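> tool_call: predict_assembly(chains=two)
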Amino acid sequence: MTLRINDRTLSRESIKNLNELSGENVKLCMQCATCTGMCPMAAEMDYSPRKVMHMAQFGLQSKLEEINTYWKCASCHACTVKCPRGIDIAKVMEALRQQTLRTNTNYIEPSEMSAETIAELPQIALVAGFRKMTS
Amino acid sequence: MKISYYPGCTLKTKANNLEKAAVASLEALGIEVEEIDRWNCCGAVYSLTADDLIHHVGPVRNLIRAKEMGADKLVTLCSMCYNTLARANQLMKDDEVKRDTINRFMDDEIDYSGEVEVVHYLTYLQEQVGWDKLREQVKVPLTGLKVGTYYGCTLQRPAEVGIEPMGSYTQMTGLLEALGATVVPFNAADKCCGSYQVLGAAPGENSAASAILNSAAGAGIEALATSCPLCEYNLGKQQQQMLEKQAIEQGVPTFYFSQLLAVALGIDPELCRFELNDGQSLELLKSKNYLAAA
């Protein structure tokens, strides 16, 4: 992956915001990739959790806004439990989702779901999915 | 003996088979189940951002309902409800500032500070009845049934609320062995089934779920036991489509642990509501003659 780090891409403000929103410190990450190894959804992500932590450490806000990693995260907390640096990575992923959702942007559109799908899915799938992916 | 119980939304409809079998089993064991008054949705997922307190109000209201009824323990069945209630309870116990804000926001309710203990059904059964005593109550031993204990995520993670640490499956193993079943280990017992990601996925194309089923089938498991309606949906109800798309080689019937418990206790199979499972689940039990006595 090619990442451009210069005064236009690096944002100290975005590092601070992400840390505040998640309650975590992304700078603690030592890039060991245990999170990626534990992640059941890594195959569907365009950037692995480790790479996202790296982007977060440099405050690459515009890059972070365009990737799908945190939308594919299932909040299973496997990364959180195994992180040797004690970072609750699930909280970092939630903060990244919220940064988008709080601009009144939905990742999935409930109105586009078919009535059959809604009738078939268990309520916890709908409530959890809408909580995680709609504003 | 009487216990306060929180069902959750899905258990009243799509996963009524999880609830009915579990409640009937406790009653057969001499424990009266009292559903808490005016319960509401737990929120399904625990809110993870530091500034979002409003989503803790839902689960905390349920805990207040339990406190009002004088309960010191609140038993839950659904793994997601358990996780959300247990985490909200921990927040109210440990975080003085957030507790104060939430209590002040809910000025129509009594103050709450984590007085009620949230307990999963499996833990409750182990502590209150115990596996040895349960074994004595078994009327139809599930002899010869090779079961996998599928815990998924929310029973074990994060560690603060896990019913036991990741990699340890003693509670469900204890239960199933007491019922006479053979527990077969497999390497996907705590892997995520994809959870709510099913919302955006094409039917039968959930690689996380197919990996779990392939691991179970490869280990020689005939039946998977779970306590989560979303896991049951992803692993059980989506199985036919996974077979059609050749994501899995063979099906593995899925059950709620409570259904296996009820069958072994000789409870009327009607109460297990097998029609809500994938069709092959009931077929497996019939082929093993576990339902003949009923």
